[in-house]
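Appendix C: a fully annotated inverse folding record. The material below is reproduced so that readers can follow the format used throughout the book. The structure is listed first as tokens, followed by the designed sequence.
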């Protein structure tokens, strides 16, 4: 659905440029837009433009960076018209200029001289993104009428059939998540890398999906590589592909994720797990856009937008020498930090209700909601495994019980017991007894790795193989489990 159907009244375009002829030229873009526009408003001085932005409705703002004194000054304009499309233009274009303008609040950037068609296409793309709130938010109790009221100042109305915006899978209206939605919308159209950080289960993959779905690359592929889940010696071939005979078992040539993502997006999940040698190959790829398949001499070039994610603190990883500093700065251009669920408790019941509705329908149970005690406990619990843990908990409750309301007694012991450890996976008394045992023959002592393996496998059994839940209960990261598993395989193989 095009933007022409999304607006009920003429679109207001404002152009700020100290050169009157340049301003008039940019303003002529209104003739090229598919939406109905009122007469564009032109400014040559920042003060009068700022004044108007604060008092009047603005749908599109085209700003010349030299006129406002640089990209840092842009923020003052962006905060006055938070729901407008802002296109920054400048005679001094560079990638870093574009990135810093977008960080300061612009949605896109153009280097002068630009064609009116290009400006029109950027504005139209952004107007098309001005879609209503995610469906999930509607499910959380906001009526279409309220939405219409809330958005009346931007004259946006619900499209007749709400198109998937990529954000609809992200649930939660807390202020912390609203900031994230806004960042996603602003960053999606850019070509610069996005670096997502956040604890396990906070929705980093959903966020990457939303960035791709809202970008111009959405008709091409989003290819995901989980660097923690793939054995180290296979990651390079998974990312860059290989030719026949490159290693034992390489019976055919194969394109890697980078090639498959040509024209689209390459999502490198758990990038903190990538080893240093491969990091340097990735850096070369980012610098040149070129790479070689494993075992190949031919150089290939692709155009893939990079999104990466980690649940580690990337700067600590750099300080510890586990992550290349130059790669970090190359990737950490547009950062998104996903808040843990315990820091946005307002979202817990909305998420829980959504999962309850979904699983009750799937499992054919009659659940409609939660009683007050269950709600209080769900809200107070710390959710170390974040949204994934909440989702799995609700599924477990739905499968194991039936009724109209979820009661306190139906909550798993781990959630009901504030100490969080009773009846859990690791039998501490057994571990202590083992430690206190009298001296024994060397060969009777179970090696540490075997003890770890047993404890981790116990935890995985307790959560039906769910790595995130097991990791949360063991208070380690899921990637530690992946790594340990890999080292056990290496021992046995
Ligand atoms: N805001 C949210 N709304 C709805 N579902 C969510 C949200 N955040 C996460 N989830 C759900 O929680 C689960 C975990 O999400 P996701 O895989 O995106 O997290 P992650 O941060 O990438 O985790 P990890 O670091 O372990 O890979 C998924 O099933 C996802 O659908």
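Designed amino acids, in order:
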């Amino acid at each position: 659905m095009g933007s022409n159907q999304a607006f009920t009244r003429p679109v207001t375009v404002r152009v700020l440029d100290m050169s009157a002829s340049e301003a008039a030229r940019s303003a002529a873009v209104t003739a090229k837009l598919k939406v109905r526009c009122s007469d564009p408003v032109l400014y040559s001085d920042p003060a009068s433009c700022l004044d108007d932005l604060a008092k009047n409705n603005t749908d599109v703002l085209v700003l010349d960076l030299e006129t406002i004194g640089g990209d840092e000054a842009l923020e003052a304009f962006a905060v006055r018209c938070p729901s407008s499309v802002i296109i920054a233009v400048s005679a001094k274009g560079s990638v870093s200029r574009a990135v810093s303008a977008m960080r300061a609040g612009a949605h896109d950037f153009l280097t002068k001289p630009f064609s009116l068609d290009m400006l029109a296409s950027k504005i139209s793309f952004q107007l098309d993104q001005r879609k209503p709130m995610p469906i999930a938010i509607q499910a959380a109790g906001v009526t279409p009428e309220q939405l219409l009221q809330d958005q009346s100042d931007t004259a946006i109305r619900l499209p007749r059939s709400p198109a998937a915006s990529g954000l609809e899978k992200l649930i939660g209206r807390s202020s912390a998540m609203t900031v994230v939605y806004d960042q996603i919308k602003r960053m999606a159209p850019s070509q610069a890398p996005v670096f997502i950080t956040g604890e396990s289960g906070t929705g980093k993959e959903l966020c990457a999906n939303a960035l791709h779905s809202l970008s111009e690359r959405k008709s091409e592929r989003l290819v995901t590589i989980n660097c923690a889940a793939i054995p180290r010696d296979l990651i390079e071939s998974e990312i860059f592909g290989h030719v026949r005979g490159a290693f034992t078992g390489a019976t055919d040539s194969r394109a890697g994720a980078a090639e498959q993502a040509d024209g689209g997006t390459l999502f490198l999940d758990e990038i903190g797990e990538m080893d240093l040698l491969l990091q340097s190959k990735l850096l070369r790829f980012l610098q040149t856009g070129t790479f070689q398949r494993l075992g190949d001499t031919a150089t290939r070039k692709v155009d893939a937008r990079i999104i990466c994610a980690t649940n580690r603190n990337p700067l600590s990883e750099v300080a510890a020498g586990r992550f290349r500093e130059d790669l970090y700065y190359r990737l950490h251009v547009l950062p998104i930090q996903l808040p843990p669920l315990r820091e946005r408790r307002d979202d817990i019941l909305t998420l829980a209700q959504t999962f309850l509705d979904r699983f009750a329908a799937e499992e054919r149970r009659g659940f409609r909601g939660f009683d007050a005690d269950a709600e209080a406990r769900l809200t107070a619990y710390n959710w170390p495994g974040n949204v994934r843990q909440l989702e799995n908990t609700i599924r477990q409750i739905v499968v194991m019980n039936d009724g109209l309301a979820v009661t306190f007694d139906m909550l798993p012991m781990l959630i009901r017991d504030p100490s969080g450890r009773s009846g859990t996976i690791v039998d501490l008394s057994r571990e202590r007894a083992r430690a206190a045992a009298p001296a024994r023959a060397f060969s009777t002592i179970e090696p540490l790795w075997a003890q770890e393996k047993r404890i981790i496998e116990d935890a995985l059994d307790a959560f039906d193989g769910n790595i995130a839940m097991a990791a949360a209960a063991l208070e380690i990261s899921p990637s530690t489990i992946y790594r340990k598993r890999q080292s056990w395989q290496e021992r046995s193989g």
